[in-house]
Amino acid sequence: MNTKFVKTKAIHHILPEFHKLLLEIEKQPLISRIIPGRISRQQKWSSEFHFKISYNTTSGIKCIMSKGATAQELFIVCNEKDTEEIIKSLNSFIV
User: Fold this and answer.
1) CB 32 within 8 A of CB 78
2) Do residues 79 and 33 make contact, with C-beta atoms less than 8 angstroms apart?
3) pLDDT at 11 over 80
4) How does pLDDT run across 41-71, given as a tens digit for each residue?
5) In a domain, 6, yes or no
6) Contacts within 8 Å (CB) and 24+ apart, 82-86
7) What is the total count of domains within the chain?
8) Residue 35 is part of which domain span?
9) Is residue 5 assigned to a domain?
10) pLDDT value at residue 46
11) Backbone torsion region of residue 68, taken as left when φ is above 0, otherwise alpha when ψ lies between -120 and 50, otherwise beta
């Protein structure tokens, strides 16, 4: 699957299960850049997809995407003043 991302900077490998979500998040106009982080394996897992907002950083928001035993960090870069509005828009992705 060859996906063309516009705002996503692929420093790390992006798991195919997360491509659809990243394309939806890219549509948010207040987000300037999305940086996928490292991929890790979790001890307990579920086959369901999960998206969770972890905390605010100095440059935006840190999130976690997970499916099965695999989790990947996601850093969303935005202006500090837009953080609350972006969190509200990302709440639709939280499962």
Assistant:
1) yes
2) no
3) no
4) 877 666 778 888 888 888 888 988 888 788 8
5) no
6) 82/30, 83/56, 85/30, 86/28, 86/30, 86/31, 86/60, 86/61
7) 1
8) 16-93
9) no
10) 66
11) left
Indicate whether 26 belongs to any domain: yes
Is the Cα dihedral 35, 24, 77, 41 positive or negative? negative
Q: What is the pTM of this model?
A: 0.76
9 domain-assigned: no
Closest CA to 31 of 22, 40, 39: 22
Structure-token pair, residue 50: 């999960």
What is each CA distance from 19 to 14, 43, 47, 51, 57, in whole angstroms? 7, 23, 17, 13, 23
**Which residue has better confidence, 25 or 3?**
25
Token duo for residue 11: 């420093």
Please determine, for residue 85, whether its predicted confidence score (pLDDT) is greater than 60. yes
* CA gap 50, 77 in Å, rounded: 20
